[in-house]
Design brief:
single chain; five-stranded antiparallel sheet; Beta-Lactamase; alpha+beta; 5 helices; globular; 141 residues
């Protein structure tokens, strides 16, 4: 196998969801298996979409991420991914820009789902709150 084939194989099978887009148009030109699983779209369907149909790009956090990415070459933001079902999914994206061998500016965007970690944090916060409340009540007795 040549290096390009190995790179494509690694990209497709990495556990984290990744999209490769053309910066000027937002067109998705490459999506891995994990991105399809996360969004509910097939890889073929994702290749017919632009980034604006996958992310809620009107969010302030997304717009701020674009400004930072343009200035620094990379950025991180918490945004909503819109699944094929229409369900919004809270995710953290890391996006970095590069220029390919043809001089086309592209971005690779890594997507990490946060829903489960947010739920776990809410459970932890609720338990801590209950402990504090019971300690306050206990101290008044």
């Amino acid at each position: 196998m040549n290096n390009e084939t190995l790179l494509q194989l690694a990209f497709n099978n990495v556990a984290q969801a990744n999209l490769l887009t053309i910066v000027s148009s937002g067109k998705i030109v490459l999506a891995n298996n994990a991105a399809g699983k996360l969004t509910g779209y097939s890889k073929r369907e994702l290749l017919n979409k632009s980034i604006t149909s996958v992310f809620t790009t009107n969010e302030i956090s997304y717009k701020k991420m674009l400004r930072q990415r343009d200035a620094e070459g990379q950025a991180i933001a918490r945004v909503k991914v819109i699944k094929k079902s229409g369900e919004p999914l809270t995710c953290e994206i890391t996006s970095a820009v590069f220029t390919d061998e043809d001089g086309i500016k592209k971005a690779i965007t890594n997507i990490a789902e946060l829903s489960q970690s947010i739920l776990k944090q809410k459970e932890i916060d609720t338990k801590k709150h209950e402990i504090v409340e019971s300690n306050i009540i206990f101290s008044f007795i």
